[in-house]
Amino acid sequence: MTVVYESKKPIQHFRDFKGTSPMRYLRTARFGKVREALRRAEPEESITEIAARWGFSHMGRFSVEYRRRFGETPSTTLRRARNVPTISLARLPRLKPSRVGIATDQLNGR
To answer: Is residue 79 packed enough to be buried (19+ CB in 10 Å), middle (13-18) or exposed (0-12)?
Structure first.
C-alpha cells in the first residue's frame, strides 16, 4: 500500500482551481443569486426578503457592497426589473431662493 502525502491544503487547491478563496467565491455567488432574484422578483417581494434568503443580514453593508459590485443600488435593479421609471433630481426644476420664500408663504396662507 502506497500512501501519498499532499503538501498543499484543500483551501490552496481551491484557490489554485478557482483563483479565489472559498469564502470569496461563495460571497460572489450569493451576490449573483441576489441580483438574479431581484431581476425576477414578484411584486410582493422586498429587497430585504430576497437578501435575507441568500444569507445577508446587515442591509446597510449589503447595499454598499452590492453597489460596489454592480454599479447600482439593489432598489435600482428591482425598479428596472419592474419597469418603474426612476426620477432624476437633475431633471427637476430648480427654484430660485426668492421664489422658495414666496412658495412657502403661499402654502402657509400668508
So the answer is: middle
